[in-house]
Amino acid sequence: MTDITRLTAAEIADRLAAQEISSVEATQAHLDRIAAVDGDVHAFLHVDAEGALAAAREADERRARGDHVGALTGVPIAVKDVVATQGQPTTAGSRMLEGWVPPYDATLVTRLRAAGMPILGKTNMDEFAMGSSTEHSAYGPSHNPWDLERTPGGSGGGSSAAVAAFEAPLAIGTDTGGSIRQPAAVTGTVGAKPTYGGVSRYGLIALASSLDQAGPCTRSVLDAALLHEVIGGHDPMDSTSIEAPVPPVVEAARRADVTGMRIGIVKEISGEGFQPGVQRRFEESVQLLVDRGAEVVEVSCPTFSQGLAAYYLILPSEASSNLAKFDAMRYGLRVGPQGVESPSAEQVMAASRDAGFGDEVKRRIILGTYALSSGYYDAYYGQAQKVRTLIARDFAAAFEKADVLVSPTAPTTAFRLGEKIDDPMAMYLNDIATIPANLAGVPGLSLPSGVADEDGLPTGFQVLAPATQDHLMYGVGAALEAALLEKWGGPVLAKAPELTAKETVR
Amino acid sequence: MSVTTADAVLPYDEALATYDPVMGLEVHVELGTATKMFCGCSTTFGADPNTQTCPVCLGLPGALPVVNATAVESAVRIGLALNCQIAQWCRFARKNYFYPDMPKNFQTSQYDEPIAFEGYLDVDLDDGSTFRVEIERAHMEEDTGKSLHVGGSTGRIHGAEYSLVDYNRAGIPLIEIVTKPILGAGERAPEVARAYVSALRDLLKALDVSDVKMEQGSMRCDANVSLKPRGAEKLGTRTETKNVNSLRSVERAVRYEICRHAAVLNGGGSILQETRHWHEDTGATTSGRPKSDADDYRYFPEPDLVPVAPAHELVERLRGTLPEPPAERRKRLQAAWGYSDLEMRDVMNAGAVGIIEETVAAGASPAAARKWWTGELARRANAEGKSVSDFNVTPAYVAELDGLVGSGRLNDSMARQVLDGVIAGEGSPTAVADARGLELVQDDGALEAAVDQVIAANPDVAQKVRDGKVQAVGALIGQVMKAMKGQADAGKARELLLQRLT
């Protein structure tokens, strides 16, 4: 019998539909895998075996009764810990929310539950999604299944590691500047950031409201499209949510056709500054698309080089305000100031925020508070918004010439844990190629393009599409994926080392 | 009780002899929408603390706001009624500051893009003249929670042992209406302030967008006051007196601040820019917290909300729903009812325009309607410390009572007895008159007999009347009425007496 955990979500769904396996079996298999390897990987902050199995039983009963089932009914999933799950702890990787159990579900969680998808648990992340390595998690970093000494990316490294380590066939990530796509790139998995407004943000603990977007973390492009369809679509609880049906992403992923499509290589986000092995796999992938009938054009988006600077003003500004609610008054960590008898509310707020937030969070709150201050607003936040407009114009011009844009997802393969922790700028540069999509609200997808020759670690290929045209990136991604599978004779994750199962009981 | 040293104040006339007052009035109005500004929670006043809350208005992690469309419509209607321009496109902004009664530690408000701007309101003053108050803006925002500071002597946060917060109020839709600096009111500044708030209250009531109850806090006024030497161009430093919660207090607080500022300035001092607290009991303000223009709320556009863009068609449709402006309505009704200016002002001050209109519509004469509501009923209400609306007397009942008098069934004193019965809950005026057997005697025979009897019994008085002192007949009428036990038509008695004596 095949190992269920090695199957893609679509394959599990097929076997569930054929009643070859049950959802309880699929869920249990993943729970067992988590028990075996997560001591090393540390993808999860919280595992909800009981809840997942109950949902699995319910999914099996639904199917047995002949009730309506969706494409992914019964397929288990992991959810990034920044997403509110009723009855399950939600910490956003912060001490500030240690032990907080939301009294409500995020809209996307409501949709997962309605679709009958058992939620295995909550995945690790950089605190409040600030980081590119999970090293800023208050609960310790996650480890890359390709090399446990390396990062699985961030902020959603827990989700990418869980999927790459076969602890979950699917996971939810959130992407504010690349937190779905960069982890996907460095773990040899697939990650998609839908168009801004394509998936409801209701229940996502906000980092930067105008940039945040939830999306799928998977091992295949089709799986990502299937999950996108479940969680996407208009939500009246999120006024920035798009009032339109989900684009035909599944259809595009199944068709995997690039014939006659114009693929635009963005001059500014490839080549120089990118690791040679990353660049080489990128160029080969472009050639594979050409072989399949696509046409290549080079486009220039000169303002993309300003993206990182604009991003690191807009994000901290919004974050400084979004994180103000963590003040120890109503929920979360509360500590009294040292040596103060009957402290004031203000003193408790200050002491709690000092104790509850990590360094990176404090750094960004201070940056954002400064950038929004009167007298500085125009020079910082105001200018950054102008850059944002220019980036959107560059995208619009580029999409005149090309149907989709492509680039390497991240400049390097997975770096070593500890390597960049004391160098915020080096850490920030990981997102150089992914940030423009968030600033402009366009969708982006990362899929594996192979492994770099120099270190044998996975490399990522990014496809960007015009807003609301998410299906285009799925079509191109699926075509490239098919070509690569043919070339390699199997998925890139087959090249990853086997993790040794631990005897320890978690 | 507040423990403060009293500030020096200058007599009002002396203050005005040297200085011109300048005011800026900020009025917060809680909209009467069924749900809150950004979530579906109820807005009902007086519910148990924290029972009308949800993840959104509690600011729980992950929750998002959605704009209440009805609140936007109310804001547009208020803007239109204040002769404002309506923004074709505007955004909410975050006003960032930390306070325990603010769940998100920012207030979702509007900053440089208010929904309505550049308007005016004409307000009637006591002498019948009109003063135009220019409106700078009206913008939408959410209310904060309500803090209750327990254990201190002042009821304020400083010195309190602990504080309780009720988030039922958090997220209630507010409209803040801000005037431009009100210049040129001179000695009438306090009156203008009161008249403005009063006119605004009438307008909002007519729009039916708020219950505008100042005592419940659904309408709150902050009064900015500054003085400049008479004739000077440059404005002085202002103080902002917060939460002045009655019309009378608005007038008193402005007057007090004028006198206090003048004393400080005359003494060579300078005004500290600060908020002030108004104390109803002492009739004085005390220092609050310093407030400078450098207060940095780090405003930025609210990224969780899409811009509000009221379509032209919507604005025009809402314009069509505006009620007649209170001032025009007043003029129209005064003409229709034939009231003198003085009578109309009494009616207005009694807040009885609406109820008189209903009473006239129910068939009463305008004069009778005014007499009952601002006379007999107002007198009774005052005596009992109530409002006329506390009595179970409806406009229809008053019209019915007026009809009973007009048809000759009741005289005035009987009508007052009937009113007693109506107020006591004995039913309609007709029912009360029936039950109490109150009816003028229509039998002329009995009246004539009584007249003859009274003339015979009072020959001296009768002679005076015969001699031409007609006013003496009053004494005889009184005797006749007494003989008839009050149930006679006094007019008819007079008529018969004069017939016989002249």
From TrEMBL, chain A:
Annotated ranges, domain Amidase: 25-472
EC number, as in UniProt: 6.3.5.7
Keyword Nucleotide-binding: yes
UniProt xrefs under InterPro entries: Amidase, Amidase_CS, Amidase_dom, AS_sf, GatA
Class of this enzyme: ligase
Domain of life: Bacteria
Alphabetically ordered keywords of this record: ATP-binding, Ligase, Nucleotide-binding, Protein biosynthesis
Active site: 80, 155, 179
Residue span of region Disordered: 132-160
Catalytic activity: L-glutamyl-tRNA(Gln) + L-glutamine + ATP + H2O = L-glutaminyl-tRNA(Gln) + L-glutamate + ADP + phosphate + H(+)
Gene3D superfamilies for the chain: Amidase signature (AS) domain
Family matches, as Pfam families: Amidase
Transmembrane segments: none
Subunit and partners: Heterotrimer of A, B and C subunits.
Its biological purpose: Allows the formation of correctly charged Gln-tRNA(Gln) through the transamidation of misacylated Glu-tRNA(Gln) in organisms which lack glutaminyl-tRNA synthetase. The reaction takes place in the presence of glutamine and ATP through an activated gamma-phospho-Glu-tRNA(Gln).
PANTHER family per the UniProt record, alphabetical: GLUTAMYL-TRNA(GLN) AMIDOTRANSFERASE SUBUNIT A, TRANSAMIDASE
Family: Belongs to the amidase family. GatA subfamily.
Protein name: Glutamyl-tRNA(Gln) amidotransferase subunit A
Gene behind this protein: gatA
From TrEMBL, chain B:
Asn/Gln amidotransferase domain span: 354-501
Catalytic activity: L-aspartyl-tRNA(Asn) + L-glutamine + ATP + H2O = L-asparaginyl-tRNA(Asn) + L-glutamate + ADP + phosphate + 2 H(+); L-glutamyl-tRNA(Gln) + L-glutamine + ATP + H2O = L-glutaminyl-tRNA(Gln) + L-glutamate + ADP + phosphate + H(+)
PROSITE patterns the UniProt entry points to: GATB
Keyword hit for Cell wall biogenesis/degradation: no
Domain of life of the source: Bacteria
Enzyme Commission designation: 6.3.5.-
InterPro entries per the UniProt record, alphabetical: Asn/Gln-tRNA_amidoTrfase_suB/E (IPR017959), Asn/Gln-tRNA_Trfase_suB/E_cat (IPR006075), Asn/Gln_amidotransferase (IPR018027), Asn/Gln_tRNA_amidoTrase-B-like (IPR003789), GatB (IPR004413), GatB_Yqey_C_2 (IPR023168), Gln-tRNA_amidoTrfase_suB_CS (IPR017958), Gln_synth/guanido_kin_cat_dom (IPR014746)
Keywords: ATP-binding, Ligase, Nucleotide-binding, Protein biosynthesis
Subunit structure, interactors included: Heterotrimer of A, B and C subunits.
Function: Allows the formation of correctly charged Asn-tRNA(Asn) or Gln-tRNA(Gln) through the transamidation of misacylated Asp-tRNA(Asn) or Glu-tRNA(Gln) in organisms which lack either or both of asparaginyl-tRNA or glutaminyl-tRNA synthetases. The reaction takes place in the presence of glutamine and ATP through an activated phospho-Asp-tRNA(Asn) or phospho-Glu-tRNA(Gln).
Family per similarity comment: Belongs to the GatB/GatE family. GatB subfamily.
Name of the protein this chain belongs to: Aspartyl/glutamyl-tRNA(Asn/Gln) amidotransferase subunit B
Lineage start: Bacteria, Bacillati, Actinomycetota, Actinomycetes, Micrococcales
